[in-house]
Amino acid sequence: MELEFWGVRGTAPAPGAAWARYGGHTTCSSVRVGPGQYIVIDAGTGLRELGDRIMAEEGDGDIRIDLLLTHFHLDHIMGFPVFAPLFSPRTMLVVHAPAGARETESALAGLMAYPYFPLGLGRTAARKEFREFAPGPLAGGIGVSACRLRHPQGSVAYRLDAGARSVVLATDTEHPETGIDERLAAFARGAEYLVSDAMFTPAEYEAGRKGWGHSTWLAGTSLAAGSGVGHLVLAHFNPAHTDDAVDIILGEARGRFPATLAAAQGLKLGKE
Ligand SMILES: [Zn+2]
Ligand SMILES: [Zn+2]
User: Fold this and answer.
1) Could you report the per-residue pLDDT of 132-166, keeping only the tens digit for each?
2) Cα–ligand 2 centroid distance for 61 (angstroms)
3) pLDDT tens for each residue of 5-20
4) The domain containing residue 57 runs over which residues?
5) 62 CA to centre of ligand 1 in angstroms
6) 238 CA distance to ligand 2 centroid (A)?
């Protein structure tokens, strides 16, 4: 199981030279399970490039995509209307979310409704199915489970398990006033990779960002240590933080949890 990042920013895209190394797209990652088979986590603006890759890679074959949405905040769904496989009759797209099937369909249809987009969701060529998320194996026998997070209007972390490989994605979450979110720590226990919300620096967080539903690299290192994961992967970067600022955050995090990486467009976890 190899997870690839297509977008690592939170809130809004961050184009420009100062954001180019980690990449400016909002949150999206994928696992290519096998020929024509994909698991995609979140549909931020990084999804557009992934869609083009899928169409180029799969030729004339059928495409099956399981899209796991953590929640419906814009930075996690903005790429959906420009996802090329959505417009192909060869695609079977199953959207899983921590909400009822109808609520999920209407959230995505609303994003493409007049006057926001020229083509309604109902007129797209892909076969589509909307499911309230339920834990279990998806394509390729990859086990997927979820954990509710502390985030305004709700969000979930997903955990993907395939044999000895495991990755937890917890991109939008805040820890309690003291200590770490023990439910999330238990959920992430022993994972090979923990992708963690690094939206705010500790100084920013203390200066008026409490209650916004996001974390710091510092909380990420405590969570990583508390859950005994192999690697901490900082992600969901603040668009106000340039690549140089992310470098500093990464260095500080490594001082507390040496096996820390920063997510970046094109980075693949589990490649080795
Ligand atoms: Zn977000
Ligand atoms: Zn959010």
Assistant:
1) 999 999 998 999 999 999 999 999 999 999 999 99
2) 35
3) 999 999 999 999 999 9
4) 3-265
5) 31
6) 12
Q: Note whether residue 255 is domain-resident.
A: yes
Alpha carbon distance 60, 49 (integer Å)? 19
Q: What is the DSSP letter of 116?
A: T
* Residue 76 domain flag: yes
Domain membership of residue 22 (yes or no) is yes
d(CA 237, ligand 2 centre) in Å: 12
CB 124 within 8 A of CB 87: yes
- pTM for this predicted structure: 0.97
Parallel, antiparallel, or unpaired: how do β-strands 28-34 and 37-41 relate? antiparallel
Q: Which of the ligands is closest to the CA of residue 236?
A: 1
Separation of CA 30 and ligand 1 centre (Å): 17
Does residue 22 sit in helix, strand or coil? coil
Number of domains in the chain: 1
CATH number at residue 67: 3.60.15.10
270 within some domain: no
